């Protein structure tokens, strides 16, 4: 990485928020989607993180994105070209490298655990797996704590003159570390919810309770998560802000369908279902989608059908094998990371309906992108989805139960079989995005949280 030095001038400078990702290393995330850090700086925009950065910029607040990477040896600065935000990359603590080496050699991944009762060989094996799973989880927690260079981070926060810290997730160990550091620096610390609902291990539990008590506030989009946090951690209502993830709607416009389909070699007469995102089969429910697609095709043997999948990830090879084993027809998969919004918008414009079969989400941005392109959405009731489509079809979406192949297939089939209704749903979905998820609307809400709560005594 070649650093581009950039010093913050505290005089007459706008407010600044420090944003931290939850991964041990940003390298882990980038490797999972097979892109380089250079591409991340030049092209990557597909996440809530850069939506926050754009939304805050609308209201005059700058954001510095802090990343931890084993590929640098000293603090280095880069510019995220699509947003103009500073990315400050820090090396992990030196002890983290030793931890990583030991962990990779000594720990294995095992399945779920049972109670440690062993009256026979099978029970003993279960107990061993349970113990090793707990050790693995504890190692993950320790790794995240060790990866965070709090001394360097504190120094760079002062250098950038950041007035508050926002952590990507509160159910990750970095949140605990940042809360304790923030208290020592006199900086307010916030965290968002993007899908993490469980502590990594019991080692984190006492610190997590303390962090919720000491933090300035948390940002949660979904009512179900608000209830969980209040029930488990007894977080008072004044510390919780319900704010949706934002979308830069101006960059998501419907392209000409004929041109979009011609570019993908999809017939104009075909009925097209689209999905895009990170290929993680269990979390994203892609196994349910493929099973539903098999049912859709079976029920319509004489129709031209296409399932357009766009994206790659850690389960790419598994997905390829699953498509091959099921001998699915009409599946068109672009196994690549696509960062250009114009290209993604073109792909979405080729579709008749968008689907999100996920089992777990925080507050997904992908369906918002499809809605901005005037697509109706059929989605599983993963966290965030019921909040996006709180009025159901009036908001342009059909919400079905998770893990339900038949329900997903039936809802998608209804939309595909009724083009006029599909277009009406698509119009409603775009209206919903315009009214509730714009950068301007979300930026004002975030500004109210950060600036009005920053100096509250908790």
UniProtKB/TrEMBL annotation:
UniProt KW Transferase keyword: yes
Q: Which domain of life is it from?
A: Bacteria
Write the record's keywords in alphabetical order, separated by commas.
Glycosyltransferase, Transferase
From the UniProt record, which GO molecular function terms apply?
glycosyltransferase activity
Q: Which PANTHER family match?
A: COLANIC ACID BIOSYNTHESIS GLYCOSYLTRANSFERASE WCAL-RELATED, GLYCOSYLTRANSFERASE
Task: Give the family from UniProt.
Answer: Belongs to the glycosyltransferase group 1 family. Glycosyltransferase 4 subfamily.
- Protein's UniProt name: Glycosyl transferase family 1
